[in-house]
Design goal:
The complex is a heterodimer of chains A (about 110) and B (about 110).
Chain A lengths: L3 E4 L2 E4 L5 E7 L6 E7 L5 E8 L5 E2 L8 E7 L2 E6 L8 E9 L3 E4 L3 E5 L1
Parallel strand pairs in A: 2-11
Antiparallel strand pairs in A: 1-3, 3-8, 4-5, 4-9, 5-6, 7-8, 9-10, 9-11
Chain B lengths: L2 E3 L4 E5 L4 E3 L2 E3 L6 E6 L5 E7 L5 E3 L5 E5 L4 E6 L8 E8 L6 E3 L3 E6 L1
Parallel strand pairs in B: 2-12
Antiparallel strand pairs in B: 1-4, 3-9, 5-6, 5-10, 7-8, 8-9, 10-11, 10-12
Classes of the chains: A mainly beta (about 110), B mainly beta (about 110).
Chain lengths: ~110, ~110
C-alpha cells in the first residue's frame, strides 16, 4: 500500500510556543489530506479536511486560527499548533487520499506541551 | 448525520479463542464501512472495508466482517486470535465528502495466553 509519513514522530514543547507537524504522501499524489487528533484511550476526532491548493475545512469546535493547516502541494500538508498549551497535548494523525489510491494514514505525531 | 457505535470498549479473550468485535452504524444513505487496527503509538492500518457487493468481507490477518443492512451492523470476527492481535480496533463509516471518515470509540482487544 501507499506510504504516508509524519514528522516529527514525537515533539515536546514549552507552553506558548508553536509546533509544526508535517504529513507527506511518499508515493502518490494526495488531493485530499485529513488531520485527526486522538486523546489517550479515545477515538480519532476529525479536525479538518484539506484539499490541495485551497483553504482547509474545519470541523465544528476546532479553532482554525489555532490549528493552521497548509496543503501547498500534492504530497505535503502541514499542521501548525500555534501558542500551544498543555491541553493541546495529544496524538495527531494525518491521512492522505486520492480517488484512485484510496486513503492511507500516517504513523502519528505525539505532542506534549509542558 | 452518520455515526458509529462500538458496543464494547474492551474485549478480553484467551489465545486461539474466537472473537467478535461489534459495530453498529446509523445512516440514511448508502454506506461504506471500514475496520482499522491501531497498535500502541502507531497510526491506523486498514483491516478491511465494505463498499458494495458481497456482504462478507475478508481482510488481513485472518479477520472478516459481515455487513448486515437490516441490523445496521458491521461486526468484525476472527476464528482464532493470537497474542499479536492485541490492539485497538476502530470501526468507521465514510461520511459526506470523499473519504471523510467518522470513527467509533474503539474496542481494545486484549489477548491473553
Amino acid at each position: 500500500g501507499a506510504v504516508v509519513s509524519q514528522h516529527p514522530s514525537w515533539v515536546i514543547c514549552k507552553s506558548g510556543t508553536s509546533v509544526k507537524i508535517e504529513c507527506r504522501s511518499l508515493d502518490f499524489q494526495a488531493t485530499t489530506m485529513f488531520w485527526y487528533r486522538q486523546f489517550p484511550k479515545q477515538s480519532l476526532m476529525l479536525m479538518a479536511t484539506s484539499n490541495e491548493g485551497s483553504k482547509a475545512t474545519y470541523e465544528q469546535g476546532v479553532e482554525k486560527d489555532k490549528f493552521l493547516i497548509n496543503h501547498a502541494s500534492l504530497t505535503l500538508s502541514t499542521l501548525t499548533v500555534t501558542s500551544a498549551h498543555p491541553e493541546d497535548s495529544s496524538f495527531y494523525i494525518c491521512s492522505a487520499s486520492n480517488r484512485d489510491s484510496g486513503m492511507f494514514f500516517g504513523p502519528g505525531t505525539r505532542l506534549t506541551v509542558l | 448525520a452518520q455515526s458509529v457505535t462500538q458496543l464494547d470498549s474492551q474485549v478480553p479473550v484467551f489465545e486461539e479463542a474466537p472473537v467478535e468485535l461489534r459495530c453498529n452504524y446509523s445512516s440514511s444513505v448508502s454506506v461504506y464501512l471500514f475496520w482499522y487496527v491501531q497498535y500502541p503509538n502507531q497510526g491506523l492500518q486498514l483491516l478491511l472495508k465494505y463498499l458494495s457487493g458481497s456482504t462478507l468481507v475478508k481482510g488481513i490477518n485472518g479477520f472478516e466482517a459481515e455487513f448486515n443492512k437490516s441490523q445496521t451492523s458491521f461486526h468484525l470476527r476472527k476464528p482464532s486470535v493470537h497474542i499479536s492481535d492485541t490492539a485497538e480496533y476502530f470501526c468507521a463509516v465514510r461520511s459526506g465528502g470523499y473519504n471523510k471518515l467518522i470513527f467509533g470509540a474503539g474496542t481494545r482487544l486484549a489477548v491473553h495466553p
